[in-house]
Design goal:
This protein is α/β, with parallel strands linked by helices and 347 residues long. The protein contains 11 helices and 17 strands. Strands 8, 9, 10, 11, 12 and 13 form a 6-stranded antiparallel sheet that branches. Helix 2 packs parallel to helix 3 (76-83) and helix 10 packs across helix 11 (333-345).
């Protein structure tokens, strides 16, 4: 009995199968209109300040994009998904396979309906992507009265304390050699790990997309080099600013502070064990996002504590301050010092 002729079977497109035929460089080059030699304005959002680059990720062994303003990073498939606002990986794989004429894969005929744009000018095109880390450098300027008004009046941090925490005022910053003039209140948070200096650029009054520019990797801890070898209490916060505020209130041997790159970063097990060997008590003080539908700081803090055995503390709900920086601006340093001592005493 015959049920008709067999049709040729086509494979479903996946990332691994696609990369057997084309490279991640091919994909970036096709959708960007070239490989950028210097940073370009981000294709993923409205961006007048070039902050988007490609780099070779040693950790993943492939080419990644990085938006230094938003911190978003990912491979060629995430880039295509974000560029065309696709909802699933399957849609992304289908579009790439269709656009590159990979007809050995099963694709949706509607996946090739969006035209591509040119984001890289001819003068900025490169033939390859360097395997070295994306470079950020800065031009430091003199401290001004406006800096004092921002840091000391709001957060109680003076020039000496800021410089100790490697927070410096800058006039310009450079991404892979491309120079941008900084806003009047712009600062470089400087960190050094394994002999390599990295920067997080902070522009407090910029739009959300331009507020942070960062080339730290996720394993870099903020203010790690400013911690004592051993001490009584360590408080891990959401940001360097919060950590600096706490450090300004106490002797380092009594209470010190540091932060990960963000609340969503996992701490390496080896680092956790080192910290437990150096400090008698370790607390996690992430943001209390009381005004949000989901209290992400509380959730992230709980997760970190569950993973490490650290103790979670947070700003009280009724104080209307989500973090130490907000609290000291609203109530002053003495009140914050009293609050922190109370939080760690009751836990």
């Amino acid at each position: 009995m015959s049920f008709g002729k067999n049709k040729d079977h086509k494979l479903l497109a996946t990332s691994d199968r696609i990369l057997e035929h084309i490279s991640d460089l091919d994909i970036f080059q096709y959708y960007l209109g070239g490989l950028p030699r210097k940073a370009i304005s981000s294709p993923l959002r409205e961006d007048t300040n070039p902050s988007f680059s490609l780099f070779h990720s040693e950790q993943h062994g492939k080419i990644f994009f990085k938006d230094f303003a938003t911190g978003e990073s990912g491979d060629c498939f995430l880039f295509v998904m974000r560029l065309f606002s696709l909802k699933t990986k399957i849609e992304t794989f289908n579009k790439i396979a269709s656009d590159f004429g990979l007809d050995q894969f099963e694709t949706d005929s509607s996946s090739n309906t969006i035209s591509k744009r040119i984001f890289v000018t001819k003068s900025n095109r490169s033939k390859r992507i360097k395997t070295t880390k994306v470079r950020i450098s800065v031009r430091v300027r003199e401290w001004k009265k406006r800096d004092k008004d921002y840091w000391q009046l709001k957060y109680g941090l003076n020039k000496s304390q800021l410089e100790y925490c490697k927070i410096l005022p800058i006039s310009h910053y450079f991404i892979n050699g491309f120079c941008s003039e900084a806003m009047p209140l712009t600062y470089a948070f400087v960190e050094e790990k394994d002999g390599v200096q990295t920067f997080k650029i902070y522009q407090p009054f910029a739009d959300k997309e331009d507020k942070w520019i960062n080339n730290n990797d996720y394993s870099t801890w903020e203010l790690w080099t400013q911690m004592p070898k051993t001490g009584e209490t360590l408080i891990i916060t959401s940001s360097r600013k919060d950590a600096a505020v706490i450090k300004s209130l106490f002797a380092s041997s009594v209470i010190t502070s540091c932060s990960l790159q963000s609340e969503g970063v996992h701490a390496k097990e080896s680092v956790v064990e080192e910290l437990k060997g150096r400090f008698k008590n370790i607390f996690v003080l992430y943001d209390n996002d009381f005004n949000s539908d989901v209290n992400r700081g509380r959730v992230a803090g709980k997760k970190l504590c569950n993973e490490t055995g650290f103790t979670q503390i947070e700003m009280p709900d009724g104080c209307e301050a989500k973090d130490p920086s907000d609290f000291i601006e609203m109530y002053g340093g003495d009140e914050l010092k009293t609050l922190i001592l109370g939080l760690i005493k009751t836990n």
